[in-house]
Description:
Number of strands of chain A: 7
Shape of chain B: globular
Shape of chain A: globular
Order of helices and strands of chain A: HHHEHHEEEHHHEEEHHHH
Order of helices and strands of chain B: HHEEEHHE
Number of helices of chain B: 4
Distance between the termini of chain A: 41 Å
Number of helices of chain A: 12
Structural class of chain B: alpha+beta
Structural class of chain A: alpha+beta
Largest sheet of chain A: 4 strands, antiparallel
Helix content of chain A: 25-40%
Strand content of chain A: 15-25%
Strand order of the largest sheet of chain B: 1-2-3
Oligomer: heterodimer
Largest interface: A-B, 92 and 57 residues
Strand order of the largest sheet of chain A: 3-5-6-7
Number of strands of chain B: 4
Strand content of chain B: 25-35%
Distance between the termini of chain B: 51 Å
Amino acid sequence: MAYVATRxxxxxxxxxxxxxxxxxxxxxxxxxxxxxKTLPMLIDxxxxxxxxxxxxxxxxxxxxxGGDLYEAVLLLRAWRTTQPRLSIAEPVLQDRLFTHRRIxxxxxxxxxxxxxxxxxxxxxxxxxxxxxxxxxxxxxxVDPAPTPAPACQPSLAAWQKAHGLVAxxxxxxxxxxxxxxxxxxxxxxxxKRAHTLQSLARADTGGMLALGYSAMRGxxxxxxxxxxxxxxxxxVRVRHPRxxxxxxxxxxxxxxxxxxxxxxGLLELGFCATLGWNEVKVISGATLDLxxxxxxxxxxxxxxxxxxxxxxxxxxxxxxHFKLPHYVTFQSSxxxxxGAKAAPAPTKPEQVPA
Amino acid sequence: MFDPRxxxxxxxxxxxxxxxxxxxxxxxxxxxxxxxxxELGAVEVVNSRTGxxxxxxxxxxxxxxxxxxxxxxxxxxxxxxxxxxxxxVVGRDLERxxxxxxxxxxxxxxxxxxxxxxxxxxxxxxxxxxxxxxxEIEATRVDMETF
Lengths: 354, 147
């Protein structure tokens, strides 16, 4: 880069950081614990964008960043690099997810039924201002059903494939070690589907919403309907040294399939999934995936456009770097401007025949 | 109810044993490991560390396997009593992973009634917690009418 370094300012820089941190006060384990317990949706969003599942660390990152999401994601992405990669788990399959919520907006009578799970979709959005007057808000407990819901459900796409409603390409078997991995290789275009989906999984929620919403409003070619939205827990299935495959525990995941009627007479589907529960993100991501095929260069639904512009660390980092001293580079622009002003007015250019 | 003195209670296969240990109550797991440790003699710790496990998922549209993201895990690997033990748990609790490895090593020498009693109790509690959650989830099943 052609930046010219500046020198000095150490005292001011140190005091500036102190001024920022003084506002946040002492960070202790109790604060981190409270954040983790009371803000699960925020923790999930940060873990998804950081591409690192560990709720305590996500809460710590939020505490340290004072709630600045991009700083928190950067802290976690940086910390992640201090850890060794121990293994690659077995691929998570839809019909093995411990399902908390599974709905379809396209099909009313889906096999397994519609399970709302935890949701505010139909809630009144009323601020509980009584809390500020000293009357705590205590949520009413759930009246459990006498029988449990089935823990596992197949994806709706599997049912549609069985009924000839969507294309059913034969899956390509890839050993877990051979799955393309963005943490080890660059994102190149046209992107491998594994790269696209991994990139969407760790993309910035707000950025995905903005670009996905542009497609929903008509700047894409396909209007989405939610085929299946699911919040679930996935088992992390790893291998014992003696070869036994077992689950080391569960992590929250969300996934969405969105659909639109294609030109081929079949339904077309878009897909997105992420670590943590984040519905806006996966619906937006699946909408982008649905619209990406054949999208024009430079359109918001073209994969190079939306993948590059929704990478949270790169995008926020590039944005905030403009705050750093650009005195020398900007000086050259000023010099050119002053030079142009000082120079005698240019003679009228010769008319060129059209 | 499971009776720990019942020698005929079925043993857990290795995968099921590891599944249960990885999600067992941390305090009770540590207590069991403490009780089993003296029988194992000298313990060689091969690994006790945190690290990342990459979690792939299969896309339900085109069937492509892709990486969802990395999960922080605690891992323990020991050699003791002529056998080895291994523990891996989601999170960063190294003591939990080590306790799991100790119980895995002890169980590989024979699932004593004490170990089986522990496994049965933990499996019951995990299953009860899942069922309770699924009953709450079932309460949200909806059947919308269209006009």
